[in-house]
# Entry
Amino acid sequence: MSIYNQIVEAIAELNDESLEIKDYLQSLQPDVRQLRASYRKPPPVYVDYAKQNIQSAYLITYLPHYYQLIYKILLEQDLSTMKSKTEFSAVFIGGGPGSEAYGTIKYILEYCANIIYINVDILDINAATWGYSHSALTGFMLPDLNRFNDISLNWNRHQFDLVDPNVVNSNKSIFKNADLVVIQNCINEIAQNKYKILENNILDIFNFIPNTSTLLMIDLTTSVRSQIAKLEKAIESKFPNINKNTTSGNRSASALTSINYRPSQIIRENLLNYTDGLIPRKNLKYDYSLLNKVKTQVKQESNKVGINAIYRPLNDINDSIQDLTNRSFIGIDFGTSSSVCSVAYVQDDNLKVELLEIEQKDHLGIASSSTIVPSIMGIVGNQFLLGKYAKEKRHQFSFGKNGWYGFKENILNLENQSFPDSKLLNHPSLQINNGADALIVFFKRLKVEIDKIIADKQLPFDKRYSFSTPANYGLKEKELLESYILQAGYEEGTFAFIEEPVSSLLGTIHQENLALDLEEDLNILVIDVGAGTVDCCAIRLVKDTDNVIAENLAIYRNSNIGGNFINRLISKRLFEKDNSLVIDEDFILKNCEDLKLEFCKSVKTDAQVHYTLNELSKSEINKQCNTRDHGKYNSIDISYSEFNDIMTNYFNGNENYKGFKSSIDKTINEANLSRDDFDYVIISGGGAKNPYLRSLCADYFQADKIVMPNNSQEQVGFGNAIQSFVSNAFGKQIIETVLNGDIYLDENIKKTILFKKGEILPSLEYESKTANNKNSITLISSVTGEKIRFDWDEYTNDIPTKLILKVNQESRLICELVTNKSIIRLKPKITKL
# Structure
């Protein structure tokens, strides 16, 4: 049962209202809006928690995310003292409804098998009012956890004001018996003039706890970062031999992605319905400080190989843990020429990542399956073709009438592509009236095939998706892509975007089991060779105390030098041999492509021989290109030697065009690096299978730095599934990304930078009071070359108080308007500059 349904079951039983549960949930909508608006007011925060409706609203809106925060920290820190105990006592200051207690107990039940007795003390200024919430936890939610019946639980609550000078001493017996003291999400509610009392009280608490015990301070409010650092410093000055794990010295607060972002159906339909003020929480920024008096923690030797080197909890996967096994984690690499789907799941206490064999039918309805799905659809007779067989028939199609392709490169213009002659015009289920409709149908057909495979594998039907996007995709492209995915039937809150270079990196680390010593920064060049484009991205992997961060040092996309350009060079060589040859796009994409593949498939090279080409690759042996119906000959010969010359020119360029190498050089120069500075050069995409290109790249770099998986066209798919798994099962972006350029206010004369290049995503929040004479704000993104405008003139009756701006983990700008009644998510109006 999902945590949301556990909460619904509890409040249906415990609340005093006579309403049916659906009506009761609907009645909570104003309470949720008001609660969220209250938390955005300056401290001290006042909320009437004595009301059942407020507690119900809190349990549904905040507990599913806040329990996850302490659970995540305990999981990532892997405290050895917890795992060695049989009895455990935890104290939660400001623990109110019990979110932190729930998260701690959940962690103990899932990872600390020796503990059989748990004592919980909730110390809160409103302790007397939380009986309703505590009954929900102890009577309904905790008993639903695995192994709960194997332990004894003692649950207590005490009145406690953290800024009362005498409160700690009067409760010192509680602290003297504590194994863990947690102060979560309450420092931000304390007025500044009470900070000295706060500091003294925390020093007293740390003095009272046993030497083997732990103090954990956590807060979600970014303004508290400096305060946590001051409290750390104060403790260290009194207790110099402490063991410390903290984010306070990192360049940014850490990030959590809620694994409960999508509520259960009854909550979606009646309360958190994704409208203003009722949008579920997704991204949270937090800081923590975990302190032990004595350095008793044994530092575990970290794994430095493969994906586990980036995220330690992947070493300790257990398929009895529901969060890891109650969903299927899907990756979708939506490519210009081909798309790839993948799945990650837990089996036998191991993470499995597999590519999905998507069924594709020919014009006779005969099906075959492949992990590669060409991004094209068509109709032959009455048979709908997706992928492979549509690609083979492309030369027979009339674009827009019975053949549809070019989705990704034309995403900004799909709605302007009108297809009045479409064979699927106004079709009841597969309507294609324009280019946008065609992409929606493509996504629909992928989803149908994915659903069939998941059912056949008997994996959970509840799915979470990660879609990869180019690193230079703008806000407009992502907004449109999101719209088309939703219209294709993928549900709100079930998918997210990840940049292709990061996915390629993750997929390669997983497939090749790369050695990653993250004690030093690593420079990695990712080159994605597609049919139409070549994307180069210089990435620096940096590790802080809590995260692995991918800094994009330089990104360059060349839309003219992809694999299809080799086809054009082949056609030029053929024309030199027969100047009567009629060369059209279909000839380039079919006949020349077939010849290129014949050369590439017959030449073998690999890392064992430093990608050196064999004798055949430069021989005078010929292959024939089919030129029937295009010139005076049925075929024209081209030798291996000639094809080698074509590939050398493609790589180096000449006076007529810049070659493949120029894209690499431009990226390296922009990153202020040299070729020797890279630890790895990862070459991905369908074009990376070309042995001639592999050899040329190996010659250009040191061969031992080159990483080219045999299934290079599919590694982004692998990376997407891994990202989906870690993000939706652990709430972690396995590799954090940074903002690739500045975002600033457009104020005519001056430009105020709000979000700087290099800021770790999601960003910290920027707050601004709303002026009486203003009802809009405009920003410029140098990342994407876009102007973004947010208007709130229709909400002026709600008394706007301030704006909250942030950049989410997908590099998308979010603007929320705080009013006296609610928090409203404003819709951006985006224009390209």
The longest strand covers residues 548-558. The first helix runs from residue 3 to 14. Residues 108 and 115 are 7 Å apart (CA to CA). The chain has a mean pLDDT of 93.
